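User: I'm putting together notes for a lab meeting next week and I want to include a structural view of one of the chains we've been expressing. I don't have a solved structure, so I'd like a prediction I can at least talk through. The sequence is below, exactly as it appears in our construct file.
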Amino acid sequence: MINNPTSAHILGQDLDFSSIAVFSPIPVDEGFTFDGKNFTISNWNLAGVVSTGIFTGALVAGTGLAVSITNLNLSSITLSGSGLSGILLAQLIMPGSAADVTISNINISNSSILGTTQSVGGLIGQTSISGTGTVAISNITVSNTTVQANSGNTGSVIGNIAAIASGRTVQISSVTVTGGTVTSPGISDFAGGVIGRISGNSGTLTMSSLASTATVNGDQNVGGLIGSLTFGIAGIGTLSNSNATGNVTATTNFAGGLIGLATTAAFANRFIISNSYYITGTVSAGADSANGVGGLVGNANRITIQTSFSNGIVNSTTGASPSAGGLIGYVTSSVISDCYSLATINGTGAGNSGGIAGLMFGNSVDKVYAGGAITAAPGGNNALFGSSSVNAKNSFFDNSGSGTTQAASGDATATGVNHATIALPATFTGAGWSLPGTWVMPSGACTNFGFPGPALAGVTPGC
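Assistant: Thanks for the context. Below is the predicted structure for the 463-residue chain, given as structure tokens.
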């Protein structure tokens, strides 16, 4: 294979790499295909190397022929070294390539990968996607695997998507991460349960059915699914039907149950989160005075969140004026609709804590409600928004359980109702909510975590 980076290959048996002390990644170019036939590569232990992985890709042949790596199990792999590293692919670059790329049906289990620098992923260390065509990554599972990059860009699946060109479409779907840890220790950025960092997207990025229970720790820009996501002016993207449940901790700032930092350079509809949630875990951010910590997103700028919810714990207990919110910690120029939060907000060190968002500027909010308990520093504890001048249209908060009767500081308005009133469908249908429809009242298997208010149909588990 090393001498044939543009041809087709098939794995014919399980491979035990326990006796391999030196290994050079197999080169991948346009026209390369590899079908593992669901066999397993196991017991690979390699240390002290630079940019390691089973494969490394540079699509430069100029033929435009498709590339695929499919149907492979990777078990009990231990890698450590410097440079870009991923168990399957150290890196995948495609300068000007028109080739379509498919990576599908890859299972990684009981493994560990440590990078002393940056861009480390369980599947792929780093990819830079230019040219035209489609890159499709699907049906990926990572279980009980530890991933660490000492200088950032760390993910259970992909460390860093360094760029997506305007002519490219990237589709990431049906990815499941079970257990394991993702760590960017010290002063380092970007750690995610699935992807550490997505930067400079000018193409089209769709992400669907991502799920992670991994524990994620880092300095800043830390998320249950994605550490950081930034789009250029031309970039568009979506995250849908996705969830995370593991604990997420940023020692300084920007921690989110789904995404630590999400920002676009254009309009809010350029990146949309829908039908997604974070539950059961704890999201925490620490000592930085500007920290934003949220049940879904730590810091959001010009994005849309719709038909999504959170229910866990949001902690922001240190810093001079941090922002903690049930959905978003710090949010500007964004759109939030048909969402709710039952998260408990512990913002005792925070200047701005709210059941939906901590600090808001220039946003549109419609049909949201908050039902979680909130604690914060004096004056910073509000049922929907810690601080905001945005009117929340057709929105409500539970004034009997939140610990506050004020929607927000500033001029924002919403309706406070008690437990009995929030359990009445008429409370919401009278405000134009789609119920039944987008929303349903708790009944039978749809318990809404024991809260009497409405749940999201097809999104809230059991509903």
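A couple of points you could mention at the meeting. The chain is about 0% helix and 55% strand. The CA atoms of residues 399 and 405 lie 5 Å apart.

User: Perfect, that's what I needed.
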